[in-house]
Structures
1.
Amino acid sequence: MDQELADFHEITPTAPLTVGEHGGRAKCLQRLVRLDLPVPQTVAIPFETVHRIAAGYRMDTGALLSVFGKSPMVSVRPSSEDPDWGGPGAILNIGMNDAKHAQLVETQGKEAADRLYRRFVQTFAIHVARLDPDMFDGQPDLADVLHAYEEETDETFPQDPAQQLLQVLRSMARAWEGTTARLLRQAKGAPADAGLGLVVQRMALGIGGGESGSGVIQFVNATTGKPQITGRYMSQSQGRAALDGDQGALFLTRDPRGPSLEEQCPEAFAELVNCGDICRTRLREEMQVEFTLEAGKLHILDAVRVPRTARAGVRIAVKLAEAGIISREEAVLRIEPRALAELMHSQVDPRGTRDRIAHGIAASPGAASGKLVFSSAAAQASAARDEACVLVRRETQPEDIRGMHAAKAVLTVRGGVTSHAAVIARGLGLPCVVGASDITLKSRDKVLVTNDGRTLKEGDFVTIDGSSGEALLGAVEMLPPAVDDCFSALLQWAENLGGMKVRANADTPADARTARRFGADGIGLCRTEHMFFEVDRLTVMRETIFADEETDRRAALEQLLPMQRDDFVGLFEIMEGLPVCIRLFDPPLHEFLPHDRSGIRAMAEALDLPISQVTRRIETMSEFNPMLGMRGVRLGVLFPEIYEMQARAIFEATVEAGKSGRLVVPEIMIPLVSAMREVELVKNNVDAIAAAVRNETGAEFDYKLGVMVETPRAALRAGDIGHHAAFLSFGTNDLTQMTYGLSRDDAGRFMGAYVQQGVYPEDPFHTLDLDGVGELLLIGAQRAREERKEVVISLCGEHGGNPESIEFCHSAGFDYVSCSPFRVPIARLAVAHAALREAHMSFDELDE
Ligand code: PEP
Ligand code: MG
């Protein structure tokens, strides 16, 4: 008896059922039973028993069936821990045999009895006896179907219900343990040893006398989350037949296109609507309900959470909280932070078809369509004609920034998540796929060749899906962004939960406005070099770089000064007193020089120099390893006049912006530091400039100087390096590059293979490597705080928008993270989740 009790439980309000032992479906059915909904009698079989059945255990199925009384008919459905992990299909009408058939002929009529028996024999033959499905083609009669079964198996169709049930359970248990099923569910996040429970339920016959049939109903639109009754009902049907074929299916609500359940069975319809209300208020969720009418009586067979898009998820959670059904905290916790990306950008409509032409790294979310162009000049020409275009490059260079501005989306053959194209696209909110190495780009011929041999030329329409990392042929159907009231409400609730601040990486007024729109707490990284790529500035910048003498360099920089000053005034005004952290010039100078002949000629013309001299100068500046060469603070030490110009521009802008009465305290950040003396040298110069500007203007102002921790040495020596710093900001892009010795621009080539083979669990440029780089962060933060308790600590690499990395920074007590403006909402929600988890809040258990 004990054995039997352990093998199964009837689902009653008090049965000891758990999701972890019996699966989500069993638990959900118990909740429906507790709500007194008309659920047919059901028995749950736990994972453990199912596992033993797969291995040959002969469970006493006669005892199980006796729970249902004399000669019942039952169905079996899978019940795994997470419904998304799939499982074998339902099997209905178990218990059907010759005797039951004879009985049903009497009560339901011959046609209904035949259909019920035939359906069971066919399902049993295909899924349990593993016979070829085609063998039943063109055999509409029950006798033919039974005959075909006997011919094929050399056995009569099993008549003993207990035997039928045991075989059904065994086949479902074995299907779950098969390799294909296991790989499929593991791909959806299931652990290797995920268990399967089964639920055995008394059949509610959807075939028979009176109004009988089956259907599925839900009360919100799965794409938008707005209230809307959707689903189908079909008379004289079972299972989900109403959804499979339109023929004969009824609409649920009144519809000009045809008859509806609401008109034909108003009482059952009203009962269903009431059931939706009960689920919403008591299960605190929007449910999709599977139901059957048996001679007019309603049975609720099953209910699952409405499968939903992210935008529907946000609306549902917010509306439940607004109705007081769940708390605001729970609404915040119900939304996966990274799902918000789907709301902030257009998305490929999941209901459409996709013709994939390339696959790479999903570098910047959202989707856009346009005509293919292969150069920045062509992108700009396209924009001038008001034509949407998609820019395709092997990889982008700094001078491509104008082409990127002009394009609707970007695709590169090379690169990883922190390569130039990826960083810029995220900043601009442009959909972007990088590292699409399965296509061949023939720039000279202006064609793309796909790996299945298709050739696409300039002007052909494509769609870039930066959320999935795919390029698709043609202009596909899109869903517009959903930055609506529900989105804003959720973010406001997240912000109210407190926790670490979230700033934005913003270089331009447009970025700063986006940052404000998404509620950033300030600018955490302004990459000033991005301000130099406008045509007029680029020429002056090149003059600076070409100057041999300091005096010539200063003369060129004089021209840049007012432009930079205006940039900063703009940022300060838009940010209205919120902190603005400006990083001094960082990249290797040669990035500003042309790379091809026509560029060199144009530059020679602009600077009025012979081509040979320009070429020679470019050669002398070239480095074997520029990312480890003359860049960052090293430029500041060797050419102090560059940083001096920038410091002056910042301070003069501070005075200017301060005239409106708002207090501006600029933050100045030094990149790529590896030694304390570097900070001292720059600090002395910046202090001197500040003193000079105070003197010249008679205005008083304050500023903060900080250090970017981007080299392992800076992290290890954060104590002395941080001695002169009001703040430290971890630049985890370079820090990851240098900790692994892994080029951030080239790693995309092999990252896929490395992750696939388990060398790295994830791309470390995308998800912070907590063990290695993370340890450097902890060491750096601790040593800096020991030296200077009040030092402000933050992270401003691309990881600043990654939820797992954010949780790490939160628990390490960082003051803020900074990420591209379009990721601010994601980061904000991730911070709220971290804060709630820290307070041990979770809402796993429903209260029913
Ligand atoms: C970094 O290295 O993490 C960083 C923020 O700077 P950049 O990406 O501009 O090198
Ligand atoms: Mg860096």
Note: The two ends are 30 Å apart (CA to CA).
2.
Amino acid sequence: MTLPNQALVLFSGGQDSTTCLAWALSRYAKVETVGFDYGQRHAVEMTVRPAVLQKLRASSAEWDARLGEDHVVDLSLIAEISDTALTHDVEIAMQANGLPNTFVPGRNLLFMTVAATLAYRRGLDVLVGGMCETDFSGYPDCRDDSMKAMQVALNLGMATRLKIETPLMWIDKAATWDMARTLGGSDLVDLIRTDTHTCYLGERGALHDWGYGCGTCPACALRARGYRQFAGYAAT
Ligand code: ZN
């Protein structure tokens, strides 16, 4: 038995997945990345990915040596078969079932399945995702139980011993910023602040202390609040 040491990180170009990528690079001998193009209304996340990868490489010779191929998978069928505020031009709002209309049903389950298929081909034994139960929007497929069930289903269905790691599952956004500082110091915090993208509306006009974004959508509000909490306790 060898310890799992080759990881595939679900990397969107946002704060969470970039922090997960740094986490994986500090742990595993080999790390590959996968991004999903699913007809997001604003493809800014997908366009910032190459620059984030390049800057992570430049930040550490060790990380550069560990970071392998980047894969981009076209999942435009998600926009075809679902109707949500992330893939269609409608106002972000709360739905009658208590979930925001940015929820894309089954998205993370599909992402994990596709990632597992890719990991199988590439001989990678860990899947790393930024799902989080603490500071989340109520998406049921971000929950720990959903991810654990997914790990069991994938391993049964593919006769593998894949491990799903979700390093952000039990921490809030402020602690996610803090994790970045622990992993890569203030350089990594600055990289995440200025190069990653989280805003639902794709706004990249003004640079705020917490990064680019409209400042008012749920993703921006969460990111800004977390950064300010982090910066507050970072100064003490
Ligand atoms: Zn925003």
Note: The chain has a mean pLDDT of 89.
